[in-house]
Design a protein that fits this description.
Blueprint lengths: L23 H20 L5 H12 L11
Helix pairs in contact: 1-2
């Protein structure tokens, strides 16, 4: 069995942290997904249910929860 050695490194507190800003492209994309869901719901909510659920998942999370490399 191999031994693992770790070397701890203290954090550099003098480094400046940059502010988090939202990406306007991400916000625009979310708005577009919401508009697509509205359109699908108006057109035929019963037959478009799967598509609406998929788009809803994109809106709720940054990545789809159903994405899997195994499927």
């Amino acid at each position: 069995m191999a031994k693992v050695f770790t070397i701890s490194v203290p954090p550099d507190l003098s480094r400046k942290h940059r502010e988090r800003t939202s990406d306007p492209r991400y916000v625009d994309g979310q708005k577009m997904l919401v508009e697509a869901m509205k359109y699908l719901a108006k057109a035929d909510p019963v037959s478009n249910r799967g598509a609406i659920e998929l788009l809803s998942e994109h809106v709720r999370t940054r990545f789809r929860m159903t994405d899997s490399p195994l499927s």
